[in-house]
Amino acid sequence: MSSTWGEHIRISIFGGSHTEAIGVNMDGLPAGEAIDWEQVLAQMARRAPGQDPTATRRKEPDQPQVLCGLLDGVTTGAPLCAIIVNQNQRSKDYEGLRVRPRPSHADYTAYVKYGNHHDVRGGGHFSGRLTAPLVFAGAVARQILSRRGIQVASHVASIGEVEDTPFDPVNVPAELMERLSKAYFPVIQKDAKEKMREVIEAARMDCDSVGGTVECVVTGLPVGAGNPMFDGVENKIASLCFGIPALKGIEFGSGFAGSRRRGSENNDPFYYDENGRVKTRTNHSGGIQGGITNGMPLVFRSAFKPTASIAQEQDTVDLTTGETVKLVIKGRHDPCIVPRAAVAVEAAASVAVLELLAESGLL
Ligand SMILES: Cc1cc2nc3c(=O)[nH]c(=O)nc-3n(C[C@H](O)[C@H](O)[C@H](O)COP(=O)(O)O)c2cc1C
Predict the structure, then answer these.
(1) What is the distance in A from the centroid of ligand 1 to the CA of 354?
(2) Dihedral (C-alpha) 294, 355, 359, 249: value to the nearest 10 degrees?
(3) Could you report the per-residue pLDDT of 269-296, keeping only the tens digit for each?
(4) Residue of 54, 59, 90, 105 best suited for mutating to test ligand 1, as the one with most atoms within 8 Å of CB
């Protein structure tokens, strides 16, 4: 098992849902970057559980402790390591799942791959809780990006069939991004949140769960970050985003909708703006052409499946007796993980963009 990502800005995430602590080590950060602690805590709070009926009732304050790499709030250039102590574990809820795996969770694949030595408590290293150290890394990365004029924000674009207004991909106002990047359950159209909450609550009342999508945008990028083929912007963002559990798809720009159009509808015509900069009138490319940023907003959407752990009785197998049996899952689970996952997507995008800039000599 290895949970290390990146070449220039390398992150390594460790721990499990019910271990003493979880954390992240960040290598390769530039020295001399002031990190505002209040802003870090604000990002952590957006993901923390137990603050909303749409999420798990597990309560965790998610206060990170920095072990090294920051001196007087400024990066030293040495590895930055932070831990988050786990405080609210209820491990007995998970004992039976070792041999009776939850449908669509990682219990069965982990049982086979790790010879039943894996930590099953709370989902172990597969838990959505591991997005807390990712959000810490993202909170550091986004401050370094912000100093270079790059902003990152996202919103819950859909829950079930309920949709929020999408970003205007050629013009994303800075104030909107500022508002969204501070919000728990960020939405553009304010009444969308209530409709989405109703869908989540209806699923919860049915002992069920519901999925959704997150749309993320990065503005202020220079032209020229990324590469063709295997080290492109899409590759880097997708590989980090797929580290977020339950994320099952990503599309950039017009994505799958673009596949149903003609070139004349999907092409992004170029023009010079009033400052003589090359821009595009539309942004179906999502700010990426040939794996390289073109200076337009980078736009992508992530699809999250409905939470696997539902309270309804389901079929599973007993790996010790060889029988098909009924399973009723105990424990505290999110009826919908999407509102809490939005900040994790922003974090993944922030770290990936920092890596892309470092690799292209643009940091
Ligand atoms: C913030 C967050 C919270 C999550 N909470 C739960 C949960 O309460 N119950 C659950 O079954 N899955 C939860 N998940 C998803 C599982 O961790 C994930 O589905 C599982 O590890 C299997 O991985 P896969 O869905 O990527 O295949 C959560 C994911 C995230 C991002």
Answers:
(1) 26
(2) -60
(3) 999 999 999 999 999 999 999 999 999 9
(4) 105
Q: Which uninterrupted H or E stretch holds 11?
A: strand 10-14
Distance CA 342, CA 362 (A): 27
Helix (H) or strand (E) holding 251: strand 247-252
The dihedral region occupied by 341, where left means phi > 0, alpha psi between -120 and 50, and beta the remainder, is alpha
Q: Whose C-alpha lies nearest to ligand 1, atom 4?
A: 128
Q: For the chain, what is the mean pLDDT?
A: 95
Classify residue 160 as left (phi > 0), alpha (psi -120 to 50) or beta: left
Q: Which amino acid is at 304?
A: F
Q: What is the pLDDT of residue 2?
A: 84
Token output for 94:
């998970």
What is the distance, to the nearest Å, from the Cα of residue 302 to the centroid of all Cα atoms in its chain? Answer: 9
Residues shown for the chain = 363
Kindly report the protein residue whose alpha carbon is nearest to atom 14 of ligand 1: 128
Q: What is the dihedral of CA 48, 53, 54, 55, to 10 degrees?
A: 40
162-163 and 151-159 beta bridge pairing: antiparallel
CATH number corresponding to 4-359: 3.60.150.10
Q: How far is the CA of 199 from the centre of ligand 1 (A)?
A: 19
Binding site membership of 334 for ligand 1 (Cβ less than 6 Å): yes
149 and 218 Cβ atoms separated by less than 8 Å? no
Q: What is the pLDDT of residues 308-336, one digit of tens each?
A: 999 999 999 999 999 999 999 987 788 99
DSSP string of 59-111, one letter each residue? -----EEEEESEETTEE-SSPEEEEEE-----GGGGGGGGTSPPTTSSHHHHH
| Domain spans in the chain, listed from the N-terminal domain onward | 4-359
Q: Which atom of ligand 1 is nearest to the CA of 334?
A: 8
Residue 243: is it exposed, middle or buried by C-beta count within 10 angstroms (0-12/13-18/19+)? middle
